[in-house]
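Aim 2, interim progress: modelling of the iron/sulfur cluster-bound target.
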Amino acid sequence: MHQIIELLGRANICIPFFCKKCGKCCREKSVEIAWGYFEIISQYLKIPIVEFINKYIGEVTKIEGGEIAYKMRCPRPCAFLETENTCLIYPVRPIPCQSFPLADFGDGGIKCPAKIEMKKAYSAIGRGIPYLIKDSGEVGPKKEIDKAYKKLEKAGFKEEYLSAFLELNQIN
Ligand code: SF4
Ligand code: SF4
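Predicted structure of the complex, ligand included:
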C-alpha cells in the first residue's frame, strides 16, 4: 500500500505504508458492515446468514417473510480479529478496512504506528504537510525522487523502507 504526495509544483513522490500488524485498528475502531456485505462474508465463511449474524454480529431476534431482524453486539474488538492480529475475512473485508488509514489525513485518533511512520516520511521529504495526497498517479521527476531518498536516509529510515521507496518510485 502507498500514497503519492505532490509537493507544491515540484514533484509527485510515492510514500510506502507498512502495516505493523499491531491490530489496534481492529480493536479500537468500530467497523460498520453494510447489510450487503453480510451475504458476501457468510458465503466466504461457508455458513448460513443467520448463523453468521449470531456468531459474529449479534443476535437474530426475528425472521419473517425473508426479513431478518437482529440486535447488534458491541463491534469492538472486531469479531473477525484472530490471534496474531490476522483478519479471518481478509479477502472480503469491508471497504473501510481496505482503505484504513489512508483515506484521509487521520487515523480516527488510534495512533496507527504505520500512519505515524508515513507522516514522518511526508515531513522528512516535504517540509511539513504536502500540497496534495492521492492514491495513484505518475511519479517524478527523478532528481526530486533522488533528493527525497537522501532526506529519508538522513531522517533515519531503515533499509526496508528505503527499498520499498525506490521500488515504488521507479520511473520507466
Ligand atoms: S493500527 Fe495501523 S499498523 Fe496497526 S494493524 Fe492497523 S493499519 Fe496496521
Ligand atoms: S474485518 Fe478484519 S480488517 Fe476489518 S476490523 Fe475486522 S479484523 Fe480488522
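Strands lie at 2-7, 11-16, 58-64, 67-72, 132-134. The mean pLDDT is 89.
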